[in-house]
Amino acid sequence: MATDDKAIDSLSEQLAQLPPLEKYPNCYPEINPLTSILHEITGVDPKIIYPNLQWTQTLAHGDMVLPIPALRVKGKPQELGEQWLAKWPGSPLVEKPTVNGTFMPIFFKTGPLTKSLIPMARKLGPEFGKNKANGLKDPTDPSKGQKRIIVEFSSPNIAKPFHAGHLRSTIIGGFLAKLYESMGWDVKKINYLGDWGKQYGLLSLGFDKYGNDEDLEKDPINHLFYVYVKINEDVTAEKAQVDKLQSEGKTEEAQKLKDEGLDEQARRYFKRMTERDQAAIDRWQKFRGLSITKYRETYKRLNIEFDEYSGESQVPEEAMNKAAATLLEKGIAEESDGALIVNFTKHVPGKAGKSLEKPIIRKKDGTALYLTRDISELLNRAEKYKFDKMVYVIASQQDLHVKQFFKIVELMGHKDLADKCQHINFGLVLGMSTRKGTVKFLDDILRDVGDFMHDLMRRNEDKYQQVENPEAVADTIGISAVMVQDMSGKRINNYKFDLDTMCSFEGDTGPYLQYAHARLCSITRKAQLNEEDIASADLSLLTESHATDLVRVLSQWPDVVQNTLKTLEPTTVLTYLFKMTHVLSSSYDQLKIVGSEPGLMKARFALYDTARLVLNNGMRLVGLTPVNRY
Ligand code: ARG
């Protein structure tokens, strides 16, 4: 027994000193002890074994499970499994598996797992779970630099409400940027504003009538929205007037109103903008600049900072003309009624071509469209950023639009480029309203949820008194509530925006995660142990099943992150964090710190502190700000 213990200790020590991760961007089968054992007993190529080893959803089913048929060996799974296990060589790290029909559940030996996991996680700290090697161009030679990814997300429209689609894009995009950063990629975050088109000519006209500089400087987002609403009311009234004149037979008067009306004026104004008329452009830059300053502040509350505020207005006319010329030259686009269209049925065979429809690339009057701008912008980014990958976080309502512009870029001869682009889509948010009515801007959403949270906190007066700066805490927890509700399901699913559910402390919510984190922090505060105490803890005292289960879940964290890079679903992280916090909360009664003898206290504390670390890392990865007390 004593020699066994010694062997385990030295093994754990070795594991805790794992070789630098740079060498293993996705972890290779060769360094996975399980893969080599399975290779030994089955004879199957490790490259087939490794990707088929799965983490389990429930600890009762093992730490990992091998679906026997996945190894593609002829025979009945149960019998094959039994034959293989007869050759099991034994391992200091892994228990001998059993066979359960088609599955082979595998359990790690908990002693060595505990002794390697806790010191390793604590040593890595905020880095635990990250794998910077993944983003290296060449994992064996870091000097060759990182791979670059562009994440385009949020992309609201100036002077229009920040709707649910923008909220989801912001949350999911922010998460993806953090995910790739933690995997060592060079991430560029781009906000592609809706800030161009005839309606912005109209906005400028509206500003002359309803706007003023003072209100603009004070609150650009709301003021521009106010102007936009007012001038659109005028447009509606004018249209009604035209109809009225026409119905009264006053055709000439009706035509005159049409020719000189707001719509025409807006068109002309916008034309001036596209021709880079200085006065028109200066004003537009001002609206845009002030809006961006305000957006920046709001995004900051969500821990998001953009590297570039691009936008439809930033796509040069010349670039679009050039793209249109190429499209014509290559026979991809064709004239139709004076406009330029792409008839996909001619370029993509079968159903696929039909489903892509016949989008317009350039209007009769020569102006470009949303689609044209996206095509040019993509080509421009390729040149400017030389990216390895680009993701567009856009609502699934725009699936067709995105398919069209990816396909057009491919048809233009840039298949390699189109292949580097990926659309990350998502479903709708239903009923996004708060107590104060339907929300319009991100700021309003966050403020209303913060207020709601603050009211809830106040109901527990004793606890409330202990919180320093309760308003700020309510704000942070409110933001967590919104974000977690958004990220809990699969992206493509719709969900209902529901304040009561998202703000509840029970169930799988943001406030619940914050509570779990704050509770762990309070353990840290009360224990008052220093690093040395913890490092010297005798981890072999952690023998209770509650303790070993917690260790087992915690050890899954790096693989959860790795797996998230495959799913690109924030729910992969959240599902794990909830699973982990459930195991944690059921262990508090069993693994008490207060009142335990000092040795045990240290060991348990080391375990809880590792849980705190993993929870903190996980919350930050999805973009939450963990609170220490509330
Ligand atoms: N501003 C657009 C909207 O609100 C979203 C832009 C999405 N990004 C893009 N490259 N098309 O609908």
What distinguishing features does this structure have?
630 residues, alpha/beta, 5-stranded parallel beta sheet, 3-stranded antiparallel beta sheet, 27 helices, 15 strands, globular, binds arginine
Can you walk through the features of this model?
The protein contains 27 helices and 15 strands. It is of the alpha/beta class and 630 residues long. The two termini are 47 Å apart. The strands form five sheets. Strands 6-5-4-10-11 form a five-stranded parallel β-sheet, with helices on both faces. A three-stranded antiparallel β-sheet has the order 1-2-3. Strand 1 and strand 2 (64-67) form a beta hairpin. Helix 1 runs parallel beside helix 5, helix 7 (198-210) crosses helix 9 and helix 7 (198-210) crosses helix 11. Bound molecules: arginine (ARG). Arginine is lined by residues 152, 155, 157, 192, 194, 374, 392, 394.
